[in-house]
Amino acid sequence: MEANLSQIVSDIDVQHQHLKKLVNDLKDCDHVHLVPMLEELTTLLDDHFMRETCAGGLYDAVGAKSMEHQEEVERLEREHVLMSSACRGLLARAKLAAESAEHALLLELREVMKCLADHEKRENNMVNRLLNA
Ligand SMILES: [Fe+2]
Ligand SMILES: [Fe+2]
């Protein structure tokens, strides 16, 4: 089971690094890059969250290793739905926003990116606890 979890963690590591960089860049994003970067993020999140929650994905491997983390995994899964929807909403609004409305949008974007960074950090800590147990 551990080999399975280690393998999955290593398989999605490149994607986790990509996501981390994008989240960081988006925190300081200006209006010129907002729409293309949000498009990149929503595409990446669709694939990333699917790879974590699909049958045989990261969360299945965590559950197979220990049921102790069931509640934590369920919370992370609920956060996927909320964050996907928040990012899609931001993208839709960014496409329509006049420059004057973009300040509020960028502030909101920073908050969503903080939530996403926090989600990834807790997820990573959970996986590391299991791998080092
Ligand atoms: Fe996740
Ligand atoms: Fe993740």
Annotation, overall tally of beta strands: 0
Give unreliable regions as ranges.
none
Summed over residues and divided by their number, the pLDDT gives a mean of: 92
From the alpha carbons, calculate the radius of gyration and give it in angstroms. Answer: 16 Å
Number of helices: 6
* Overall form: elongated
Distance, first to last CA: 13 Å
The helix/strand class is mainly alpha
H and E order: HHHHHH
Proportion of helical residues: over 70%
Percent of sequence in beta strands: under 5%
- Attached small molecules: fe (ii) ion
- Whole-number count of domains: 1
Main sheet makeup: none
Overview of the molecule:
With 133 residues, this protein is mainly alpha-helical. The protein has one domain (2-131). The chain contains six helices and no strands. It has helices at 2-11, 13-27, 31-53, 58-65, 70-96, 102-131. The two termini are 13 Å apart. It binds fe (ii) ion (2 copies). Residues 16, 48, 52, 120, 123 line the site of one fe (ii) ion (FE2).
Looking at this protein, list some descriptive labels:
133 residues, mainly alpha, elongated, binds fe (ii) ion
Topology:
Blueprint: H1 2-11, H2 13-27, H3 31-53, H4 58-65, H5 70-96, H6 102-131
Helix pairs in contact: 1-4, 2-3, 2-6, 3-5, 5-6
The chain binds fe (ii) ion (2 copies).
